[in-house]
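Retry 2 of 3 after timeout on previous attempt. Resubmitting structure tokens to design endpoint.
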């Protein structure tokens, strides 16, 4: 049985496409920075704490940071996600302020 070159080319393209999709979905960390974002809501369940900012639910891993954040206030927020993980906050700073939330004097 002879193999047709089209089968090899189609297989190669499919393998490359799947590899690129897997890398961008699970191997690459995506990051977004929001300037002067207003926290519209704070929620939590038994284990996790979240903020709603620009209609996006973002996980706050540090409960102390979550407690310092106030709804209706403006912050500069950076969050990351990868694969099927929930977006989580990596950096929070009060808008128009050079110190971190709860930072030194």
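Retry 2 succeeded. Sequence:
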């Amino acid at each position: 049985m002879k193999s047709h070159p089209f089968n090899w080319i189609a297989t190669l393209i499919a393998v490359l496409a799947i590899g690129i999709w897997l890398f961008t979905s699970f191997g690459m960390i995506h990051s977004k920075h929001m300037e002067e974002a207003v926290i519209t809501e704070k929620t939590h369940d038994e284990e996790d704490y979240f903020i709603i900012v620009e209609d996006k639910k973002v996980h706050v891993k540090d409960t102390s940071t979550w407690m310092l954040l106030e709804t209706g206030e403006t912050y500069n927020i950076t969050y990351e996600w990868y694969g099927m993980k929930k977006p989580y906050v990596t950096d929070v700073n009060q808008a128009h302020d050079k110190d971190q939330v709860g930072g030194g004097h």
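Attempt log closed. The domain at 30-94 is CATH 2.40.50 (OB fold (Dihydrolipoamide Acetyltransferase, E2P)).
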